[in-house]
Amino acid sequence: MSPDVPLLNDYKQDFFLKRFPQTVLGGPRLKLGYCAPPYIYLNQIILFLMPWVLGGIGTLLYQLGILEDYYTAILSGGLMLFTAFVIQFTSLHARNKSVTVERMLTTDILAEEDEHEFTSCAGAETIKFLIPGKKYIANTVFHSALAGLLCGLGTWYLLPNRITLLYGSVGGTVLLFVFGWMTLCIGEYSLIVNTATETATFQTQDTYEITPLMRPLYIFFFFSVDLAHRFMVNVPVLQQLNQLLHILFIFLPFLWALGTLPPPDALFLWAMEQVLEFGLGGSSVSTHLWLLIMFFISAGTAVTSYFIPSTVGVVLFMTGLGFLLSLNLSKIGFVFKLNVIRHRVGTKSKTLPNCSEKQFTWKEYLFYIIVLVLALLETGLLHHFAGFSQIAKNSPQAILGYILMVLFIILWILKEIQNVYIFGIFRNPFYPKDVQTVTLFLEKQTRLAKIGVVRRILLNLVSPFAMIAFLSLDSSLQGLHSVSVSIGFTRAFRMVWQNTENALLETVIVSAVHLLISSTDIWWNRSLDTGIRLLLGLELQETSCHTAEARRVDEVFESAFEQEEYARVCSINEHFGNVLTPCTALPVKLYSDARNVLSGIIDSHDNLREFKGDLVKVLVWILVQYCSRRSSMQENVHKIENKRKASLIVLPALNTPPQTESPEDTDSLNSETLDDWSDDVFGEEPTIKKGREKDQLKILPGINLPIPGSVESQRVGNHSTGTVTENSLYKAIVLGYPAIDKGKQEDMAYIPLMEFSCSHSHLLSLPEEWMSNCLPNSKVKEMSSLFPEDWYQFVLKQLECFHSEENASVVVEEIAKDRVLKDFYVHAVMTCYFSLFGVDNMIPSPGHILRVYNGVLPWSVALDWLTEKPELFQLALKAFRYTLKLMIDKASLGPVEDFKELTNCLEEYESDWYIGLVSDEKWKEAVLQEKPYLFSLGYDPHMGVYTGRVLTLQELLIQIGKLNTEAVRGQWANLSWELLYATNDDEERYSIQAHPLLLRNLTVQAADPPLGYPIYSSKPLHIRLF
C-alpha cells in the first residue's frame, strides 16, 4: 500500500518502451530488446514505406501532367492491391513450409518467449516474424482489396495540388503531404503486414481479426468527407470541414496510440447506443442483441411517423409508441409467454420462476392500458381542438410551460429533501440523525416517506401528462414530412415516459428559451448522469488496501447517518471531496448465518430415547394435518351430511389372533440392516450403494384399487362409485412376505371388512393406496401399544376444518372415538416409524440420525412399502426432521410442558421454518419465499462433531451511496490499459493500491470480469415505477 508504487515496474517499463512505438507506427517492431540482424529492421522499413512508394509513382505522374487525378488513384490502388496479395501469399507460403528447429535449452524463460532465431533475410522464420499473416483466407482477400482501395483513395486525398487549393500555402502542403503519407503508411502496415496492439481494446481476443480494420476505418471516414466535397461543389460547410479534417488527419497516429478512438466493434455498438439514447429517446440496454432490436424498432418509429399524412395521426402514433417503447418489453414478453404456457397446461409449474409473477400482475397490465388510453385521449383532443398559436405569454403552450417550471422546482426540492445531504454539501435537517435501528429509523422517516410518495405521483403521473400536453400543442407539428420533426418529437414523446426527470428538465429549458427569444427552432438536448451505483464488495481475503478504503467508507457513512441529537441542524459534509456521496438508508431483509456444534445434544442417550417417542407424535400430527388439508381441497364437505351411507375401508384386523409366524417370516424381518448400508458418518454424505438407493427412491405409478368392504365403494375425492365382485373384496396386497405356494393361498389371513363408526371420518381418511399391509400381524399388534392415543385424541380436537359446522365439537368427538380410523392411523404411523428405525426398536445412533435426515434409510420390507408411496415418504422424512429440531429445542430451551405447547412448536415449524438440506432445491425456494428460519443438520469430519446451521431472517438498515461517474470510468479505463495493453501482472500493481479519496482498490474490484473480480454481480433487474 505504499504511495511510492510506480505505474509500471522496471520490467514492465522496458516492455512498454518496446510496445508503445510499435503501437504508434502501426506494427513495425523497431525495438526488440535483443540483438537482431540488420535486415530485420531494414525489411520492416521497406514494408512500411511501400504504400508511399507506390502512391508516389502515381503522384509524380499526376504532377507531370501525364495522368488525371482519378487515373492516378486507380494506378496506385492497383499497384498496392498486387503488392498486398504478394505479401499475403508470401506469408502463407512461409507458414506452410514448416521446418522443425531444435532449440538449445535455456534457463531464461522470459528471454525464450521474446527472442527469435533468424537464419537468412528471406527465411521462413524471418517472414513469419515480419508478416504473421491472416487466420482466414477470406480476410486475406478482403484485407488485400481494402489495402488497394485505401492506397488509391489516399493518393487522391494527398495530391499536392489538391492540398494547395484547400490552403493556398506551399509550406502547409509539404507538411500535410509528408505526415499525411506517414498516417496512410501506418494504416496500410497494420492492415496487411502486422497489426499493432491497440491501447483501446474492447475484446480480450480478436477472433475475427477486426483490429486490423480499426485504422483504415477512420482513414476512410476522412476520405468520405473529401469525396463529398469534390462532388458537391459550392458547399462552404463541407469545404471548412475538409480543411479541418486534413489537419486532423496527420494527428491520427497519436489519437490511435492514446486510445482516444475506439475499435470498430465498440465504435458501432457505442454509436448505436448513443443514437438510441440521445437521438431516439431510448435508454441503455444490457445485451448487444437487445440493443439491435430496440435501435431498429426506435428508428422504424421515426421513419414511420415521417410518412403519416395527418398531424393528429402523427401525435397519436408518437404518443402510443413512445409509451409502449418506454416499457420493459423483454420482461413483459417473457411473462406473457409464461402465462400462455401455464394456460395451455392448465396448471402452474413449479419450475417456472415466481419473481415474474410478483413483478407483473393483471392489475399492472390494466394500469398500463388505462394510462395509454388517457394519454392518447389527452394528446388527440388537445391537438385537434386547442389548435396552434404563435409563441406568446398567454398561449396555452406557454401556460403549460409555466406549470412545468413550477412542477420541476417542486420535484427538485422534494428530491433533495429525500437525500441525507443537500447538494452533497449540507446535511438535510429533515433527515433522521440516528439511523442505527430499523424501528426508530422508520418512525422518524415517516414524513419523508409521505413526501416520497407525493414526489413519485408527481413524477410518474402528473409530469408525463403535462409534458405530452405541452408537446401536442407545439406549432412545429404543422411541418409534416420533416426529418427534424419526426426525430425530435419521436424522442420527446418517448422520453416523457422513459426518462421523465431528464425530459422535464429539457422541456423546461425549451419552454424558457421559447419565452425569452420567441424562436421555435432551438432544441436543447442534455443528459444528466446521476452516477454509477455500485455495491462495494470485498475480496475473499482482506488486505491492507481494503482495510484503508473500507475504513474511509465507514467514516463517510458514519458522519452522514450516525449523528448525536444535539448536533447542528445543518452541518457540513466532512467528506465532500470523496467520490462516495451518501444518499439514504434503506431497511433490507437479510439472513444471518449461525452454525452451532450439537455435541451433548444429538449424542445424548436420554435425548435419543425421547426422540423415538416424539417421532411417533410428530408423525401423527403431520398425517392428521395432511388429511385435514386434503379434505379441505375436495368438494364441499356439507354435501356429505346428506349422504348417510356407510363407507367401508380395508384395514388390518388388530383384534384377530395373530397367525403363526414361520421361520422365513422372522428372518425376513430381522434382516433389516444389510451390508450395503455403512455406519460411517465421516464422509460428506452417508454411503449407500447407488443401485439400492435408486430402487428405494424411485417413484412408482399409483395403482387405484377399489376399496374392499362394500359393493358400492365411494371415494370422497371424485365421488366415483363402482361395483365389484364379492371375491375381489377379499383380495389383499401383502408386500414383503416370503414366497407362498399358490395352492395354500386360502391359509393366508385376509383383511376383513371394517366400517367407520362416524360418517365424518371420511374427511380424515388417508389415501387408499396407503392401506396395504407389509408387516405380519404380530408386528401390527405389537406396534399398536406404541401409538400415543391421548395425543391422537388431542390433535383431532385441535383441527380447524370442522369449525364451520354447527355441531363442530360433537363431530370432532365422534371422529375421535372412531376406532377404525384410529387403527388406520396406527397402521400408517407405525409402518413409517419402523421404516425409519427398523423393527428392532433400538435407540438410534447419531450417525443413524444424520443418515435418515439426509434421506438415506436402511433397507427393509417396510422401506420398500414406503418408497412406493413418494408422498408418504416425504411426509415421514419431514416428520423425522421436525422431531430432530424438536429434540434440539428441548435440549436448549427446556422440555415441552404439555400437548398445547408441543402443538405450538409444530405449527411454528410448519409456518416459519424450513428444515431440510442446504443442497435441496426447496432450500433455495424457502430463501426466495423469505422463510423466517431455515435449519440444516451437518457433520464436520475435521472436528468430528455434528453441527446445526440456522438462517434467521432479519431486517437491517443498509446505507446507500453513489460514486462519481467520471471517477469510476477513469479508473476502469486505466485498469483496461494497464492489464490489456501494458500486461501488468504485478500483485502490487498501481491500480489496486489503496486511495481513500478515490476508493481505487474497491472500485477496480467492482469492474466487470475479467478485469474486475466482484464477489457477486446480479443480472439486470426489473423495477416497477408504479
From TrEMBL:
Keywords: Membrane, Transmembrane, Transmembrane helix. It holds the Pfam family Pecanex_C. GO terms for cellular component: membrane. Residues 655-682 are annotated as: Disordered. Residues 864-1018 form the Pecanex C-terminal domain. It comes from the Eukaryota. InterPro entries: Pecanex, Pecanex_C. Residues 662-682 have a biased composition (Acidic residues). Belongs to the pecanex family. This is Pecanex-like protein. It comes from Camelus ferus.
